[in-house]
Amino acid sequence: IKYFPEPFRIKSVEPLRMLTRAEREQKIKEANYNLFYLKGEDCYIDLLTDSGTNAMSQEQWAGVMKGDEAYAGASSYYKLVEAGRDIFNYEYIQPVHQGRAGEKVLFPLFLSKGKVAISNMFFDTTRAHVELAGARAIDCVIEDAKDPAKRVKFKGNMDVAKLEALIKEHGAENVGLVVMTVTNNSAGGQPVSIKNIRESAAVCKKYHIPFHIDAARYAENAFFIKRDEEEFKNTSIKDIIRETFKYAETFTMSAKKDAIVNMGGLIGVKDGNSDLVLKIKANCISFEGFFTYGGLAGRDLEALAIGLYEGIDESYLQYRNGQMEYLASRLDDAGIAYQAPIGGHGAFIDAKAMFPNIPYYEFPGQVLAIELYKEAGIRTCDIGSYMLGNDPDTKKQLKADFEFTRLAIPRRVYTQAHIDIMADALIEIKQNAHKITSGYKITWEPPILRHFQAHLEPV
Ligand code: F0G
């Protein structure tokens, strides 16, 4: 397919360097086969995450100069609050330094020991904050999401019947929170429909359970709704966003994704006068700083206020999605399996399909991530059993529903030629995949969020 042209041109550049294959093999070995230990400068194309790795615009950089650094009541704070209210139609907007800070502030207000939280799928840090609050996290995505080859729209949706069954099983009084993650990152950046949001919210209402949105990629989700949900094909992105958030009472957001900043996050509360807001402010003051800056510098608040609008611009979203579709078409041509149709922020390659003989406990997603680095200096990450980790109660390795290697594409950063290098590297690896018959084992791991720090070695 045709590459959708960038609605911008490049004003400032960041040089890259490519190591030799021998150097890369040495670097990944020194990194204990954990890509998080690699230096950024040793990666030619860095697809570890789309979080905080985005390119800011000239308006955002100009905003950085104008940022108001007042400790309390900075004008940049008010500008951010105004943007947040305008876009989400929520009364209370709380800046925090990133998404997980929002989770740390908010989740203990809903969750404690003995409670569960249910989501279409929790991202790893979000799951960790549920567990840190003493509760247990349950994923409840539709079954279709578990079959990477099955091309269905809104593959990130909640399984609404299962949600209700889980509520009955655990008792409504024990379900502290239902979290709708848009887009569904762990299922492949797959979108959630308004219909599904409405139905999930209705179940929560029936059982008096708070309904919360994990909004990291809300703008990409809105783009999919406009493209694929008949009712909204003539609705503006902003109105789709307002419709999305209407059904929840609260949201947390990592602004490092769709708000196109390098650092930042938000908590939103629909009812600005609630007790909850007082508790959020109290927690925020303890953990993040005074509630008018929430762990961010004034310049960050200013860049975020601007980025929120740039991230919902339709021509930008079209280009963003076009880049994904172009990568997907190259993968389709080469017969490389991925979570299809392609999601909003990258390609989730089906590493189980690439390496059918490598068992989940030897981490096929990690195997492919390491091969991509060796092949072309591309840094990616495992979204599979390696990331999922051990059962918090039994400490046994969990088996993930998928074994993905995620190529998360930063926003406004890489060009068509870079996308071609990604596809070419995957094709090269696929051609030699039969030669790789074993994976990796963990030689050391910390107790929580182990994938960031674990040491591995080839089996
Ligand atoms: N929720 C979702 C759905 C996320 O994808 C992330 C982060 C967070 C919450 C936490 O936000 O990083 O700002 O603290 N995801 C990144 C990723 C790290 O690579 O997918 P954070």
Question: Your description of this structure?
Answer:
This is Tryptophanase. Keywords: Lyase, Pyridoxal phosphate. The structure is a single chain. It is built from 16 helices and 14 strands. The chain is of the alpha/beta class and 459 residues long. It has two domains: 21-50 and 313-458, Aspartate Aminotransferase, domain 1, CATH 3.90.1150; 58-310, Type I PLP-dependent aspartate aminotransferase-like (Major domain) (Aspartate Aminotransferase, domain 2). The protein has a seven-stranded mixed beta sheet with strand order 2-8-7-6-5-3-4, sandwiched between helices. A three-stranded antiparallel beta sheet has the order 9-12-11. Strands 1-10 form a two-stranded parallel sheet. Helix 4 crosses helix 10 (275-287) and helix 14 packs across helix 16 (416-431). It is globular, with a radius of gyration of 21 Å. The mean pLDDT is 97. The structure holds ligand F0G.
